[in-house]
Amino acid sequence: MSYQLKQTDSTLNNNSYSMQSTFKVMLLGDSGVGKTCLLVRFKDDTFLCGSFIATVGIDFRNKTIQIKDKQVKLQIYDTAGQERFRSVTHSYYRDANALLLLYDVTSIISFNNVRAWLSEIKEFAQDDVIICLIANKVDKIPERVVTKEAGQKLATEYDVTYIETSAKTGMNVELAFSATAQCLLEKELTQNSKLASKTLMNLVQLNNQTHKSSCCLFSSS
């Protein structure tokens, strides 16, 4: 694993920090962007291959992870991307602590629809909800039509964290969920959503920098 989850001294000195925290995380995005595959990769470390089966309404799974001495239970809601299920998923927005918004890098339509999803988030979710924009299916290099630069630009415009993932290879899947959990712990401790969002961005940037440094160490001269 190429990233490290860090805690501040104040966090470590807080006795209540050894108890379990529970957070609700929702996966959002168009149908077919890989929400269910991302969840299954994180939950069971497997990849769903074969025919695409759309999620109907809401699916739900739990996973408990450990960050230092803290047990963190993530209640993860996998939502249907089809328009006819939107009224159902809207009712879950308000209780979500974090929203992972996915698009498929091989689908310009799913990328263009990110703005509509962000508008729904603004309308139905809490004002201080943590948002992460996830560019999925980056393993499909020949079919990619949405560049990394375009994704990063959109994330910067909306001041949200940007992560590239592949549910097929597992690239950055654990990072997306674990860094979000770390961010939510920060928010729980400080009651400062802006500081927590910054923590999420820093963790992702740290992972990217560490990955680049590792690559350089093994490059040929």
TrEMBL record:
| Keywords recorded for this protein, A-Z | GTP-binding, Lipoprotein, Nucleotide-binding
Give TM segment ranges. none
The record's section on Pfam families has: Ras
Q: Which GO terms describe its molecular function?
A: GTP binding; GTPase activity
Keyword Ligase included in the entry's annotation: no
InterPro entries hit by this protein? P-loop_NTPase, Rab, Small_GTP-bd, Small_GTPase
Q: Known PROSITE patterns for this protein?
A: RAB (PS51419), RAS (PS51421), RHO (PS51420)
State if Cytoplasm is listed as a keyword: no
Residues of the signal peptide: none
What protein am I looking at?
Uncharacterized protein
**Annotated organism of origin:** Didymodactylos carnosus
Highest classification ranks of the organism? Eukaryota, Metazoa, Spiralia, Gnathifera, Rotifera
